Amino acid sequence: xxxxxxxxxxxxxxxxxxxxxxxxxxxxxxxxxxxxxxxxxxxxxxxxxxxxxxxxxxxxxxxxxxxxxxxxxxxxxxxxxxxxxxxxxxxxxxxxxxxxxxxxxxxxxxxxxxxx
Length: 116
Known about the structure:
By secondary structure, the chain is mostly helical. The chain has a single domain (2-49, 65-98), classed as Helix Hairpins. The protein is 62% helix and 0% strand. It has three helices and no strands. The protein has helices at 2-20, 25-45, 67-98. The longest helix is centred in the last third of the chain and has 32 residues, at 67-98. The chain is elongated, with a radius of gyration of 21 Å.
């Protein structure tokens, strides 16, 4: 089980880094999202991978999972959703402003009145 989760984290991280290094806005946003998914799975797996164990300790329970990583992942999901929405809006604004979604374009110099 641990090997499968570690492999999934590695594949998501590699795919996320590959997409972040693209020169278009949409793949960069997808790469950032994939990296956040990888970090979330890593945080979730840091609380011990046990199946069917409750996250809250009670008197008759002998094994349990750590609830702190679950709370961290829940918070990270909300934050990553907000940041993805902000990045999409910035990318959409840049695309609508210049009709191009390259992220390495140099801004064109504007001509001012009174200068040749």
